[in-house]
Amino acid sequence: MQIYLPIAETSVNAFTLLGVGGGVGLLSGMFGVGGGFLITPLLFFIGVPPAVAVATGVNQVVASSISGVLAHLKRKTVDLRMGTVLLIGGLIGSVIGIWFFNLMSRLGQIDLIVQLSYVIFLGIIGGLMLQESLRALLRSRNPAAARRKLHVHTWLHNLPFKMKFRTSGLYISVFPPLLVGMGVGILAAIMGVGGGFILVPAMIYLLGMPTKVVIGTSLFQVTFVAAFTTMMHAITNQSVDVMLAIFLILGGVVGAQVGTRIGLKLRAEQLRILLALLVLAVCGKIAFDLLWTPTEFFVITVPGRF
Amino acid sequence: MRVLWVLLLCLAAFELRAEQVIAGLSQNRVSLTVNFEGSDILIYGAVRREAALPEGSDLAVIVTVEGPPQPAVIWRKARRFGIWVNTDAQEVRAAPSFYAVATTRPLRDILSAEADLTHRISTRLAIFEARGSVDRADPAAFTEALIRIRERAGLYQSRDGAVDLERDTLFSTRILLPKNIVEGTYSARIFLLRDGDVIDEYETFIDVRKAVLERWLTNLAYEQPFLYGLLALGLAVFFGWGASALFRLMRS
Q1: How many Å lie between the alpha carbon of B116 and the closest alpha carbon of chain A?
Q2: pTM for the whole thing?
Q3: Topology at the third CATH level for domain B20-210
């Protein structure tokens, strides 16, 4: 069954869309990842214009993280103060990202920028995930191995404008969280992702936040930055396709519920290796398209359309 | 005396247009609904003749369907630092978003270059290149690329021999509007030709419109982008939160 997307102005198969949403939802439920970094490139592969894929992907992030953030708020595992500082950075980053996105659209280079960002970030995440899961596998066989020490103070924390973050038990400069938030905002606008994959490690290793508030606080920031970025895309370049979003979201929420159940039953370590390989495969496919001599050397862009 | 003159003039007019084309479409509205997968349009008609069938030349029919023209930018890729990047661009002032030419016999056999220039029938002439963009060595390569890419997408179609002409009178052809067409007014033109020249022409229109919901969403997106953004967020929150609430309810 084909579905006509009014903004993208093309038809795609409804079951493919539900499958993309559901498959990514399943993975996100199993591994607790947002999945935006898989949805957007998969949409490229099925022929959705990159600009629409990015803007709609970020809309989907709102749907996939909203119930999580509500649950964490109820459990009081959100550092609201830290979340707000990260959010302010995120909004600034989102504005910068949107400006850059629209500039590159006008110059006809947005597809390249989006693809390059994906190659770089998927390569990094996939590589780190693979390394981490292989290490975890080794550690589980050898429990005596030394653990890494968390929360090391660096010069970053001693910049001016120090602030107390009571929930996280931190007294650090506002600049590191602002900059981290900003980076995530830029990624959200250009890549259509939530940015949790950058935010979570940055919060743990860079800011030294306790792990019990990391997930809630990152979800808090990601949800609001994604919502803001959706609005910015809708207002500045009209590339959010709600018809596309509804199918992705429907597939995604069901997939996530099933994924969470599976995740509770299975040992995730081995599966995490598969996720890492999947991320690397998507990265490889995009990289291949950029590197391989194309069969068609020309592309057409129609001003004002995608 | 005056009556005679009028009669003579009428006769002359009949002489000039000894053969006339009358045509119809199977549908002149196409609605881009949620499950739009493309649309097949039947274009048919007849040749009306006041005189005997002229001898010594063959009758030919050309049917064109043209979608709303749009400006376009054609980019050429080149390898920079190992990756393929859009480097050169050429603008096209107006290129039809859809263009199909169906004929009874190969286009170049039935249409003279002059007639093509006057009526702009071939795909190449339906595209208006931007003036002053010929400073490049190979401007034609860009326009050819535009045609090639759109032909592959089914948006441009050259179908020699696709018009059936029976006993030099009845003709019909089918034009497939693919799923990725844009909305607007499409014009269907039917040309009658003899010896490379157009002897009669008929034009009619096909209205391609998004269906009610799609129309409403597009209008909202472009005219009230703020409200549209809120709608997108509202749906995301509703489905995202609603689904997990529903699952929680089912579990307990």
Answers
A1: 26
A2: 0.81
A3: Immunoglobulin-like (2.60.40)
